[in-house]
Amino acid sequence: MAEKHQDVVPPPLELEIEQYGIKHHWKCLAACTLVSMCPFQYGIDFGLIGGLQAMVGFLRVFGYEAPELPSGWNISTERQQLISSLMTLGAFISSSGAGPMATFMGRKSSIWSASLLCIVSNIIMMTTTSIGGLYAGRLLLGLANGIFMTFSQLYIQECTPARYRGLMISSFQIWTSLGSLVGTIVDNFTAKIDGRNSYLIPLGLIFIMPAVLSFGLLFIPESPRWLMQHGKVENARTALRWHRPYPDALIDAEIRDIQLALESENQFKSVAVMDMFRNPVDRRRTVLAICAITIQGASGAMYMIAYGTYFFQMAGIGQPFENSCILIGVGVFAIVINSAIVTHFGRRRVFLVSGLLLCGLAQLLTAVVYQVNPHAKSTGQAIVGLAVVYIMGYNGMVATYAWISGGELPSQRLRSYTFGLATAIGFFAAWLTTFTAPYFINPESLNWGPKYGYIWTPSCIISAAWVYFFLPEVKDRTLEEIDEMFEARLPAKKFRKYVCVGRVGVAAANGSDAGSTNKGPDVGYTEDIKA
Q1: In the Cβ-directed half-sphere of 132, how many Cα atoms lie within 13 Å?
Q2: Residue pLDDT tens, the chain, 531 long
Q3: Which of 262, 321, 378, 507 is such that its CA lies 20 to 30 A from the CA of 50?
């Protein structure tokens, strides 16, 4: 049986909202830009730590002499693994607890707690000369970064208007890459300093962003959706009025949409971890969010980011610090270009498939070129060029759209739990990469160097295939519209052309009352839907 719903047009309120452009939303976008600075900490750590492990001043304290290597120093595989991976492990732990944490702490309070934890961890790392103390500092810093990455994303997803959500998540990725660029540039200049100051000066940068965030958060409101979820309706209305330039009628309409979405989900009473998997709709949304974020790790980016400088140095490819600066600078440029087009184009599926295939090809060619002629100057030049191509694909197409998709897809009731779990598994994938990469690239172990790319090419291809067949396209959709589409149980390929009619409209179109819409009903669509 086929039901056809035709002549579905956007409601008048939607048309009125479209009259408000980016200038009208400046307060909301400014607040979200502030919160999007959180991943600067994550980026600067990756930028710094890769350089520190190639820095003589650092290696004198935590490494050993190796006269046969270009720098004369090296660090053991085990220490290299733990220094890089403990931060990611900490992020995995804290993002895993995002759901329970969100039941009693708002988005702002969580970011404040992360800022404090970040400062404490950095004090430990700067004052210790013990490897155990360094490990402890790295783990605590990871706990802070996990909170930063998870709760800043939640705030942005919940506060930004649908058409600007891609832009703000893109700025999230810009700050990650800017952090990496700043860390790498500072490493480049301080690497020439003799003694501990060569790595203490870069570590001092970690104090800056927590101070900026802690002060800036005093001037912006809490997430309206979090307030609504906790029964603070008037506070949510006040917060939404701050975020939106709309008249009261439009504010009330958005509050009503949020309330209806929450009420339809509140039939499940309290929220529990297993709710993410208990019914088919939430299970699908959970799996999609996890896979969307995890494709960042599946692209092989973590070893290139975390070990870039060390990788270039051990492979004897040009000037390692300068090469890393060029690589990350190109990455920042790619994200800026992406930010300029994400609002107008920004198709998640197209960018992710294209980016993953480009990353896979760059990794494959890097491995082949190095295997054929590992020590030639032309090989080094080719590898740097392919690394630039790789980072253009990753930063410009994969990273931004993976984060956007992972944050858009969870249900409102389970958003903190689902996105926390997805982020945690993404961090676990990153941890696994940073933990195992030294076995492949360190001369003390397998000494594969650039041949490590052979592992990541099939991973990129499999990820691209998953995106093509399973990831829905939800560009420019409100979170409430996304709820409606999942409740309709549409296949991924039908999301893009689906016409949302709202919960009340769905009930009317199907000749039932509004209360029946949470059963996974037939819904308005612009083409035949087979029952």
Answers
A1: 0
A2: 333 443 344 455 555 666 777 888 899 999 999 999 998 988 888 778 877 877 888 888 888 888 777 767 888 878 887 887 888 889 989 998 888 888 889 999 999 999 999 999 999 999 999 999 999 999 999 999 999 999 998 999 899 988 888 788 778 778 888 888 888 888 888 888 888 898 899 999 999 999 999 999 999 999 999 999 888 999 999 999 999 998 888 898 889 888 887 777 666 555 667 888 888 999 999 999 999 999 988 888 876 665 666 556 655 656 666 777 777 788 888 888 877 776 666 577 888 999 999 999 998 998 898 888 877 778 777 887 888 888 888 888 888 788 888 888 888 788 888 988 998 898 888 778 877 877 787 677 777 877 888 989 999 999 999 999 999 988 888 888 888 899 889 998 888 888 877 655 555 554 544 444 444 433 333 333 332
A3: 378
User: How many other C-beta atoms can be found within 10 angstroms of the C-beta atom of residue 216?
Assistant: 16
Residue 347 carries which side chain, given as an amino acid letter?
A: R
Which tokens in the block code for residue 287? 């799996």
DSSP character at residue 399: I
Global pTM reads 0.74
Q: Which residues contact 254 (CB under 8 A, 6 or more apart)?
A: 240, 244, 246
Q: Which amino acid is present at 231?
A: G
Strand intervals (E) in 428-509? none
Listed in sequence order, the residues at least 6 apart from 329 whose beta carbon sits closer than 8 Å to its beta carbon are 181
